[in-house]
Amino acid sequence: ITYNAAVSACEKGSQWDQALRLLVEMASAHVELDTITYSAAVSACEKGSQWDHALRLLVKMASARVKLDTITYNSAVSACEKGGEWDQALRLLVDMASVCVELNTITCSAAVSACEKGGRWDQALMILVEMASARVQLNS
């Protein structure tokens, strides 16, 4: 709990590099990294506009067999959106479907925004169609 609180504090303070250092320290101390730990670190990366680090954390989660959830994906998609990586954001939506993680309005809004920033209106429209078919609530 202490490490998770520290990683969460780093996330709230936009200290993505410190959050990643804590993950290394936890692994060295043989402390189990769980979904909460990784989600806070991914969110710290998102707040620091470090989309590449956020994606690496998702890979580490999968290889460590830590459950990826909607919250974790939301942060990663938002990190891609902030970094202008619309193609990575779309890849994450596909990944979510393949591991049966539910899309929500936050995930899709971030992906639509990423497409908008990348000038990919066609992809943004496809996300809206997918949202409707997946019964994800549309907002303004």
Structure description:
This protein is mostly helical and 140 residues long. It is built from eight helices and no strands. It is elongated and about 45 Å long.
Q: Roughly how much helix do the residues carry, as a percent range?
A: over 70%
Structural class: mainly alpha
Roughly what fraction of the amino acids lie in strands?
A: under 5%
Unreliable stretches: none
Attribute tags:
140 residues; mainly alpha; 73% helix
Helices, strands, pairings?
Layout: H1 2-12, H2 16-28, H3 35-47, H4 51-63, H5 70-82, H6 86-98, H7 105-117, H8 121-133
Outline:
This protein has helices spanning 2-12, 16-28, 35-47, 51-63, 70-82, 86-98, 105-117, 121-133. With 140 residues, it is mostly helical.
